[in-house]
Fold each of these.
Amino acid sequence: MKHFAITAGMAVLSLWLPQEVRAARQATLPEFIPANPYSEFYVDEAASQTDAITIDFCAEWNPEFPWNGHRCCRQPKSKKKMHWRERRRGGTVCYAERFKANFCEEMTADQRGYSDQVASGEIPDILSFLDVEMTRSRGQAYCTVNNGFLAFGRRLIPTDENRIKLRFPGRCVEFGTDPMIGMLEWLGRRVNSGYSAPEVKGVHLLVGDISSPKGGCLAGRNGLRGHASHTSGQDVDLGFISAYENKESPNSYVKHFDGKPNWWFMKQVFRNPYACVKVVFLDRTHIRKLAKAARGDEDWQKFGRFIRHSKGHHNHFHIRIGDGPGPAGCQVDAHPELETEDSVPMEVELPDDVDANRLPAGKILKTS
Ligand SMILES: [Zn+2]
């Protein structure tokens, strides 16, 4: 591993060398090995598609590459090596360079182009576009959900058809893998068709953080990690479905939870044709309400065990997906109980009353 890191460092220096020299050196690079993943369970299947991965690829896509010792995957710190503040917080901090009001400058030309194409109508239907894109089967999520990055990240774009509202539209944290964006677009359209009557037109799907344009650590309060995961475009936070006649759904997370509409929504989540769902994190008081609403519904047997209690999820769902479509759990012998938010005990997010666009970098935020 040590040898690999040294060679990797040299490879980065070689980025400034002429093309032929680089190509020759590239050929001598050792095969990509994910650097000490959290646990086997966390390694994304995409990370095993190693043939396309080179140090150049990691340098281009992993936004933490300059600071993580020029490794493809950030190495998790052991508890022993953590600063006492990190230990007290229960998690490592993001690199200082990741603490910023928004991540928009990390967008690639392709990502900007895609947004323009959707806005101008050049891509008239996002889902049929994604259907084609997903056949390209290129890896997008690398390393682990807690210490990973996102290549060719797709932006989620709110439209009238998908009834999606972004919690922080100016923060550029609505990027995910194609299956993630396909799932959310499909879910938004289900909300649109499920609540089509004029008196419930105000019902929308509130989307919180997914990942930044290239993934990586999402810094929250005071430079600390805002989330344990959300680094590889495979985790999304969603507001609860709030369906009342002649009332707009709230634009921020609320603790109020109605069992019936949210059980309907959970069934859509697990049945979406774009991404298998590994786990949904939710506070146990809300899970009880879901179970009650699902009484007599055989789908509870199928999906219920994948909805798991996790501290800090009293006002939003946290959904983690796999690499593509599939059954709940993404594999036959799924163990949703092994999916955790890992070392960060709760999601420390920006409070709702903050205008993320006007947030000065370095400002200490109090959570609501
Ligand atoms: Zn989350």
Amino acid sequence: MNRILANSTLRRSVINSGRTMAAEKLLVSVSVHDFENFTMRRRRMMSSSSAAEPTTSKAPSVKAHEEKKEEKKKEVFSYWGISRSKITREDGTEWPWNCFMPWDTYQSNLSIDLSKHHVPKNFTDKFAYRTVKLLRIPTDVFFQRRYGCRAMMLETVAAVPGMVGGMLLHLRSLRKFQQSGGWIKALLEEAENERMHLMTMVELVKPKWYERLLVLTVQGVFFNAFFVIYMVSPKLAHRIVGYLEEEAVHSYTEFLKDIESGAIENVAAPAIAIDYWRLPKDATLKDVITVIRADEAHHRDVNHFASDIHFQGKELREAPAPVGYH
Ligand SMILES: [Fe+2]
Ligand SMILES: [Fe+2]
């Protein structure tokens, strides 16, 4: 009885395995058949599409790319449910910038005295003044009267001191459990303002690969050098920046002269500049350079003031910081 049962079980399993193998063979043959059909269809499609316009063949991929981008956007906006409330300009139109908000914008004070100069009085002042004058020589040789390029490159340097000074004061405030008197904010505001100058200039001048390389090198050297100078002598560091800003006022005045003479085309102002400085919609490059020059004059005052406080043997926090000074 047991042998009969065992034989029938064995027979069933042989039949089943035979069926399975047959089914597998069928699947493989179907798959091979389908694959060959697919390959042939694909070849036909490719030969016909090669004759067609490239734009029609790219259209689905472009659409897919755009859909992917939209999906990514949605992912970014939905992360942790954080979303930005609708921000508008004064005229009700939608605010287009994420990098700054309407409350960061301002109307430049153009009545500032552009000719002010701090006469070097002592060794530190003279050292700072001569250092800046020395730094101007390679700048003049390299850029000559290419003021667009010159301004763009110099703004990459100008945005460093405020950040270094602000960062060091921030760390000092933490170490000493002391208020900064608003100076951290004032110096970081300066760095941000200089960075906005750069963001404006790159809309007008596209940096070349060797200029980007130069920025990398100069930033590496200047950041570290300024960091050490600020640690050793903040009064020297602020005086150097004060003189650098005097040079910046001079450079932008020359820039304006070239716009007025027609040597540089007075193109329309970039949209970012119109919103940041609350300029009229038909503003031009001349208007932009005029407000940037006024900013540099304000930075000149802030830094000479900071240096003077140190010269009086006081700390910055003892004098009111010029927060929001434009
Ligand atoms: Fe600047
Ligand atoms: Fe500046």
